[in-house]
Amino acid sequence: MAAITVRQAISDAMREEMERDEDVFILGEEVGVWGGTFAVTRGFYDQFGPERVMDTPIAESAIIGAAIGAAMTGLRPIAELMTINFAFSAMDHIVNEAPKLHYMFGGQFKVPMVIRAPGGGGRQLGATHSQTPDAIFAHFPGLKVVAPGTPADHKGLLKAAIRSDDPVLFIEHATLYQWRGEVPDGDYVVPIGKSKVQRPGTDVTLVSYSRGLQLSMQAADELAKQGISAEVVDLRTLRPLDMDPIIESFKKTNRAVVVEEGWKSYGVGSEVVSRIYEEAFDYADAPVKRVAQKEVPLPYNQKLEQLAMPQVADVIQAVKEVL
Amino acid sequence: MNKQELLEVYRQMVMIRRLEERAAELYQQGKIGGFLHLYIGQEAVSTGLVAARQPQDRMITAYRDHGVAINVGISAKEVIAELLGKATGVSKGKGGSMHMADTEKNFFGGHAIVGAHLPIASGMALGDKYKKKDTVTICMFGDGATNIGYFHEGVNLSKVWDLPVLWVCENNQYGMGTTVERASAVSEIRQKAEGYGIPNERVDGMDVLAVHEATEKALKHIRAGKGPYFLEIMTYRYRGHSMGDPERYRDADEIKQWQESDPIGVFHAYLIENKKATKKALDEIEAQVEAEVEEAVEFAENSPDPAPEELFRDIYVEEN
Ligand SMILES: Cc1ncc(C[n+]2csc(CCOP(=O)(O)OP(=O)(O)O)c2C)c(N)n1
Ligand SMILES: [Mg+2]
């Protein structure tokens, strides 16, 4: 096992899959000559050539649409959106074509494609470039939505996404690329649709994913110093959502806080909390809390932006409120 | 343009360049965050356009917007304060480099989603046509933006409804690291306008007078009620796409070659050769600009951050 960054984990997953299967190829803006704006595909253009690492025009609906079409002919495209904020330019193809084709035509078409899209705030990019709109994509049946936190899960879930016969939106977080952690050697694949306990505990359940996972792990460290044992459950996949480890944990701790970076209203936390109440209402010793982004478009000024975004301190405070 | 107007054009171009050189330093010092897209090399484009517009004409552009901001008369103080995210910035520190606007000066932003402001420009022109105003919307965008659907939808609509829009493609040869040839089916971008039946022209964007002249001609056509016009202005950005661009896609020689026809250098030579200004007068302008930029930096650094309450202000017009 080697400790590598999230960036390296994503890069390794794609390289290994492209070496294994020549139907896998990459298309997107600046993925080739530039090496990816987040340097995730650095070296790919030289290794695989322009036929398999395709720089596209700035045309998101063409990128996703062409990926769908190529997938329908049997290829396995990995379409990169420079950031998830540009997914809105391709919304029809992401939510109204890719997830519908298999079902609507009675199972005739397969759309084995991956859309990689980094998102998130905290980099002072202003309102249009800082969003965490994960929840809205998770609304659509037929689309799988994966949003890992740890380097190992980035690698294993991306491999699973590339091998999946269904369209998968693979959401990354631009501030997690440097996060370093152990990744098992070899052909490491993590199944889509399985939540996981990332840190065992007994007093409170922290439910989270992506950057929220990092906040939750840091909060759990702090809480441990104060004698509070938090169990951290990582959703990893938003659709299909696996509630089992969460319900199991909640039945043990009877208290939970859901941590996400997106807006609270109609968010991932809204879904998780409802499901906890539907499936384990009798086990609740306190109302479940949500920690999320304030209901504002993110501003440029750094202090204001941080004020709007969920912080480790907010998680700790929410835990104290449910205890 | 008379002598005074020519000197004002010179001052604006020097201001854009000096302000941005200073902004690059402030970025390196960590005082500016996020993206910073510099306009250096392209100053003649926005300067020529704005010099030819009537004050009521509306400007709208993409995220590479510091040039227009200066041209329409936003002070260096307000621009730099915005870059530093201060309450005194032109967008109260909430927009940053990519999102500057000043409605009083008929500057409608600063838009960071590539191509998304083109249909918006058509809508602004629709508003003016609806109210029978003598106003043209001047919409600027990059070569790369002409490949996204928004471009085609907005431009087509402008012709279908014969809207008073001047479309201005700043062809600086690259969308990030991708050359026009690698991304566009036609390398002469004005041909796209031709396809929509819109009169069009290619213009030397390193020559502010050529830009000015072409703009005057285009605005005359639009003001006569003949519908939209399209300019493809050939230019070049000297700096990276934004700060931190590794620039693996081009070599230093190419940049040097373009710098030989530097818009400020070319115009400086024109002013002297044609006895429009003395070297001394131009030196004085440069010194004034330098002082104004320094003063603006000091102003911005001493300005307060927006108050925490500002976070929740301006989400809706009608606040409860
Ligand atoms: C819809 C969308 N896709 C991608 C981006 C990322 N992006 C920002 S600028 C840019 C290049 C634009 O090139 P061009 O239109 O030529 O303008 P220039 O930067 O050269 O001024 C890209 C791809 C974006 N902001 N919006
Ligand atoms: Mg360009």
Question: Would you kindly provide a written description of the structure presented here, covering whatever features stand out?
Answer:
The complex is a heterodimer of chains A (323) and B (320). With 323 residues, chain A is of the alpha/beta class. Helix content of chain A is 37%, strand content 20%. Chain A is built from 12 helices and 14 strands. Chain A is globular. Chain B has one domain (3-304): Thiamin diphosphate (ThDP)-binding fold, Pyr/PP domains (Rossmann fold). Chain B has 12 helices and 8 strands. Chain B has a 6-stranded parallel β-sheet with strand order 2-1-3-4-8-7, sandwiched between helices. A two-stranded antiparallel ribbon of chain B has the order 5-6. In chain B, helix 1 (3-28) packs antiparallel against helix 11 (263-273) and helix 1 (3-28) crosses helix 12. Chain B is globular, with a radius of gyration of 19 Å. The mean pLDDT of chain B is 98. At the A-B interface, helix 3 and helix 11 of A face loops of B. The complex binds thiamine diphosphate and magnesium ion. Thiamine diphosphate sits between chains B (64, 112-114, 142-145, 172, 174-176, 241) and A (29, 58, 60, 82, 86, 89).
Task: List descriptors.
heterodimer; A: 323 residues; alpha/beta; Rossmann fold; 7-stranded mixed β-sheet; 5-stranded mixed β-sheet; 12 helices; 14 strands; 20% strand; B: 320 residues; 6-stranded parallel β-sheet; two-stranded antiparallel ribbon; 45% helix; binds thiamine diphosphate; binds magnesium ion
